């Protein structure tokens, strides 16, 4: 189970770090062709989401690998699950059915990582 959790953590981290870097640093105009909803919200919200995804992705790995405050890893996973819940609600309200699958899959994986690291195979034990 520990190996499965590590695989999920690494995949989630890579996904959220990449998405976070893009939303945090790229100009909104260059994001719009790939992420159609960025023009529907204020630029600060796009940046906030990007920073949250970036920090969450880092939080999935760094505390676990360093052994410093490893309880932050399942907390990061839970926070990313919450971000995906908000993304799911946002896309449902906008009628973007084609965007739901990724939010659901990432959300489920984040919930599993949080539960796995809080309950099944806690870090630092």
Description:
The protein starts with a helix and ends in a 5-residue tail after the last helix. It has five helices and no strands. It has 125 residues and is an all-alpha fold. It has one domain (2-120).
Short structural summary:
The chain is mainly alpha-helical and 125 residues long. The protein has helices at 2-25, 28-31, 43-66, 72-93, 100-120.
Q: How would a crystallographer describe the biggest sheet? A: none
Please tell me the total number of domains. 1
Estimate percent helicity.
over 70%
**Intertermini distance:** 14 Å
Q: How large a portion of the residues is in β-strands, by DSSP E?
A: under 5%
Global structural class: mainly alpha
Number of strands: 0
Residue-averaged pLDDT: 91
Low-confidence segments: none
Q: Order of helices and strands, N to C? A: HHHHH
Oligomer: single chain
Query: Quick one: overall form?
Result: globular
Output the number of helix runs: 5
- Rg (CA only): 15 Å
List keywords for this structure.
mainly alpha, 0% strand, 76% helix, 5 helices, 125 residues, globular
Itemize the secondary structure elements and their pairings.
Blueprint: H1 2-25, H2 28-31, H3 43-66, H4 72-93, H5 100-120
Helix pairs in contact: 1-3, 1-5, 3-4, 4-5
């Amino acid at each position: 189970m520990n190996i499965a959790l590590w695989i999920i953590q690494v995949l989630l981290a890579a996904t959220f770090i990449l998405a976070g870097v893009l939303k945090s640093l790229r100009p909104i105009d260059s994001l719009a062709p790939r992420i159609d909803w960025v023009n529907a919200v204020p630029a600060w919200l796009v940046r906030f989401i990007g920073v949250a995804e970036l920090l969450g992705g880092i939080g999935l790995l760094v505390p676990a690998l360093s052994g410093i405050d490893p309880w932050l890893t399942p907390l990061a996973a839970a926070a990313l699950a919450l971000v995906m819940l908000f993304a799911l609600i946002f896309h449902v309200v906008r009628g973007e059915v084609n965007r739901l699958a990724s939010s659901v899959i990432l959300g489920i994986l984040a919930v599993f990582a949080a539960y796995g690291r809080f309950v099944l195979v806690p870090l630092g034990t």
